[in-house]
Amino acid sequence: MNEQMATATAGDRPGRREQNKAENRAALLKAARSVFAEIGYGAAGVRDIVRRTDLASGTFYNYFKDKEEIFSAVVVDMSAELLARHQKGRVKAKTAEEFIRSHCTVYMNFVAADPEILAFGRNNVGAVRNLIDKPDLRHLADALNADIVSAISRGILPNVDPAYLIASLSGIVFEISVIMLSRTPVDPAGAADFAARMLLGGLGNLPRRA
């Protein structure tokens, strides 16, 4: 019996170690998100992040090499949340207006509704902008590309250049969100409507592909 218990305990150890690793990484990401939201990427340091956890200072480097890497990881986590919301909206659109308005509204509400994400956006505009074209965030553009190509094939969007449309959607919505975040009170509905009207007004004038 004792031998069986010892074998079971030994078998559980690797699983527990992996769970501890996952918990430690999650704690660091949660702390980093709060720190970056409060004081911004430029002012934040690794020590500020570790102090928000119960971990030893050296533990940080078991998971992230520096502040830049954990900032990127925080943004990637946020982008996963954003992507999940987009997948419930854009793919259900039945018209071009529904597609564009869904994209704009989901994005603006995401960055404005949660106080911590709102603060994160306000205090890290430059740092986030520098990450947009990095491989870690490529999944957002890939998902938008897939949704646009699908919408074109179904006749929901006109047969325009998807790459140009992705650039327009991403650029316009992001830059309008930057202005929105700088204002008090924040108006996600107004920002989304402005972006959607601008995009929809130009959509009819775009050249069609052969």
Sum this structure up briefly.
This protein has helices spanning 2-43, 46-50, 67-87, 96-113, 115-123, 125-131, 138-153, 162-181, 188-203. The chain is mainly α and 210 residues long. Helix 4 crosses helix 5 (115-123).
Structural notes for this entry:
- This protein is mostly helical.
- 73% of the residues lie in helices and 0% in strands.
- It is built from 9 helices and no strands.
- It has helices at 2-43, 46-50, 67-87, 96-113, 115-123, 125-131, 138-153, 162-181, 188-203.
- Helix 1 packs across helix 5.
Question: Characteristics of this structure?
Answer:
210 residues; mainly alpha; 0% strand; elongated
Secondary structure blueprint with pairings:
Blueprint: H1 2-43, H2 46-50, H3 67-87, H4 96-113, H5 115-123, H6 125-131, H7 138-153, H8 162-181, H9 188-203
Helix pairs in contact: 1-3, 1-5, 4-5, 4-8, 4-9, 7-8, 8-9
Query: What is the CA-based Rg, rounded?
Result: 21 Å
- Let me know the largest β-sheet: none
- Based on secondary structure, the structural category is mainly alpha
Question: If you average the pLDDT, what whole number results?
Answer: 92
Number of discrete helical segments:
9
Residue ranges: pLDDT <50 for 5 or more in a row?
none
What are the secondary-structure elements, in order, as H or E?
HHHHHHHHH
Strand-residue fraction? under 5%
What share of the residues lie within helices? over 70%
The oligomerization state is single chain
List how many beta strands DSSP finds.
Answer: 0
